[in-house]
Design goal:
By secondary structure, the protein is an all-alpha fold. The chain has 10 helices and 2 strands; from the N terminus they run ααααααββαααα. The relative contact order is 0.13.
Length: about 200
Amino acid sequence: MPTGRRQEGTRMDQRNDEVKQPIDVAAMFPAVEQIADAKLRGAVDAVWQELWAMSAWRRMEDVPTSLEIPYPTLPHNQCVLDMAIAVADAFEKHHGVKVNRDHLIAAAVLQDASKVVESAPGPDGRAIATELSRQYPHAFWAAHLALRHGVPDPVVHVLLTHSPQAPTFPTTIEGKILYYVDQLDVIGIFKDRWRKDLYITK
């Protein structure tokens, strides 16, 4: 093979190696298979695929929980999902409280999905904020794509209210479960950020 053609073939092989592969949502979050609504299950996957295609990260394992918390977001998100399902199981077992499992799992899998576009690897390899994260609050872009893909409003509501920085508190039982287990997991991976303020009321 002529040298020029061989070099061109090498460059093409390198470009092919650099093509980002679709992300395996079911492998990261096996509980998505428990979503009975096939349309919702497909929408959850579609949102993740679109976000991952936009992301500057090459490996999910490198994406941090936040710029403040360098711990990887994937095991954090996986633990939040497991805890949310465990709470739903306990509510039903001990109190007969029914939780919408489809909505709970979909919201848990999507609540931190936009982190892959809210940060990017900097020149030194450490995470830096993206322009998107400077313009929109956490989880906004995941919620935006979720609506486009037909994810039900109650699930999108959870995405927009699961963070302590959100302007409103979740109104559904699924949202409240995720709000609290998310913050509990932050204690495990980072530190306790809870505090109690005392107020005198009539």
